Amino acid sequence: MTEGIIGKKLGMTQVFGAGGKAEAVTAIEAGPCTVTQVKTEDNDGYSAVQLGFGEAKKSRPGKKGKAKEKETQKFRYVREFDFKDTKAITTGQKIDVSLFKAGDKVDIIGISKGKGFAGGVKRYHFRGGPKTHGQSDRWRAPGSVGSNTSPGRVLKGLRMAGHMGSRRSTAANLEILQADPERNLLLVKGAVPGSANGMVMIQKSRKGKK
After folding, report:
1. pTM for this structure?
2. Which end of the chain is more exposed for a tag (fewer CB within 10 A), N or C?
3. Is residue 60 pLDDT above 70, yes or no?
4. How far apart (Å, rounded) are the C-alpha atoms in residues 145 and 3?
């Protein structure tokens, strides 16, 4: 991961650009997040910053006497991000929307909407079987799933009907149209994974970076 922040997807709306063109945007309440722990090469074997966001409904069970774990129990979400200069970050520090500005490219990670059990046509966009020659009851069937003698089994990972959605999904290289630190608000061009009020992770885009 790269420098980022935790947020909550509020929903979608539209804004009008300079030329009067309507742009679909996703509104995200991003932060403010609190630094709960700074991880270093010496102590943890790698460098990262642990952020907490949202108030926990009730304290989670943790080992008694550990100040680090007691600190994370206050927050509903705790995630880690890589920061360029961890030496300049201290525990308890606030990270807010000022990390980004309009025009920045970001990657947004969320949990996609769950669609329940779905067939191959909906799940993987199969085109279905022929509509004629006696196939009136097989329009949305998956067809053959393997050979009889060799390999004599269904190959692992074959695309078939099953549970759709509810998976970690990343929308890459999205553009920030507006960043409002006073309201902790980001307007991101396009759609973002997940449902309204779902947790998302916003981080600086890795696309184009070596």
Report:
1. 0.79
2. C
3. no
4. 44
